[in-house]
Each structure stands twice: as C-alpha cells, then as structure tokens.
Amino acid sequence: FDINHTAEKLPVYLDDGLVHVTLCADSVWIRYGEEPYYYSYKVIGLPPTIQQIEWETEPVLFSETSKSSPVGEYSINFTPGIAQGFSISYVPGVLTIMKRKVKVYLEDPSGNGFQREYGKENQEFAIRWENNDFVNGENSTVFDQQPIPICSATRTSPAGRYVITINDVKATNYETDCWETSLEITKAPVVMQIKDTTIVYGSINPYNMHFVMEPVDRDITLDYSWKEDKTVPLKTNVSYYSGVGQYPILPDSADFYNF
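Now predict its structure.
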C-alpha cells in the first residue's frame, strides 16, 4: 500500500506519546459475479518526519461478499493492524456491486444483414443472448420478460434503411447491452403496362401527347411514383408526318422511389 499518498494532514497528538493516524479504505465497484482484485487504503495524519509505518501485524481489508452476492453496497472493513508507537483509527469503505451486462443482438442467419423488398412484410427477428455473459449458472430466465425487436418499418414504408432496436428488460443482477442493427428495404421489381393510344393521321403532334403506363396487378396500397416528375416518361418514334400504321410506345428511363 502507498501510505505516503495522503489526502490531507490531520493534527498529530503526541500527548500520550503515540502518533495518531487514520486508515481510510478506498471504495471499489465491481460487476455482479466478480470479486475485487485487491483492496487499498489511504493513511491520513502521517507526519512528514515519518516515512512509513513499521507494522508488526499489517491490517487486512475484507468485505462479507462473494461472487454470488447480489447487486448493492457492502462495507469494506479492516482487521486491525499493530504498529508500535501508533494509535490507529479505521474508516470503512464501500464495495458497490453493479449489474452485469449481457449482450443481446439479433440472429442473422444469412450473415449479410437484414433486407427485404418494398411491399413485403418484415421477417421474424430472432433474439440471441451472449450466454457467456451469464454467471453462477444463470441464463436469460433471470429477466422479467424476453426482449422484443422493434422496427418502425411497415409493409408500405419507402425504400431505405430503418433501425431495429431491442427493448430494455429488467433483472435484479443483470442489464442488457443491446446491439442495434438495421433493416434495409430495397426497391421491388414491377411490370409496367403501356396503354395503347390511337390518333388520326395528321391530327396531333405525337410529341405533345401524354401516354399512360400502369403497373400490372397494381396494389393500391403501394407508391408507384418516380422521382423526376408525375408524368409518365414514355416516348415514341412517331412524328407529325408519320403515315398510318402501328408504332411502338417505349418507356424512357425513369427512377422510381420504390421499384
């Protein structure tokens, strides 16, 4: 112990021929299931003329705890020591046992993260515990309930990335260390159908026409809009001078939000 590390100098009374000092136990905190590596104390009131205490019997620090002691605060006490020429007082410390952290995360069978296409339901998210984090033969049954994955994404949520969180659950001696992950909603494939259009020869400039394109098997709950504008990006090679006949209407490039 470093007895020269003193927080302050208290008066030293030599009327009885003894040097009066106080030993103060340092407070310690650990996690449930652990034991302190060591205890330490400070010596208060040791005069500068005395470099160290020559112990006949050195004091011993202890607490009435074990690896199975529950979360809480416990006293760190002294077994008194003996040193000639010293009158020694003792101040207990506090051993704080804190909750043990247990990692909780989502099982990812693919190893590639969580993905689904726009318009589909979220998959089932399976909870996985880091069982090595439990001690004293305990397991996840010590919690008042099993954690639940929470994701704001629904079937109609736009393509993008959504955070998956895990709700907090309670236990006397444990707390969850939840690893957040995310769900990526990708654009879904879609088949679009262009409606046929008929015009009279020479009656209208085809470049001024608006063609109609609709999805096959349209789901009215989903969003089929695209990013450029609200008109259908279609084109045809027909001109004002094109003769009577059939001409293809071709889709132009379009960047859909969700498809």
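The chain has a mean pLDDT of 82.
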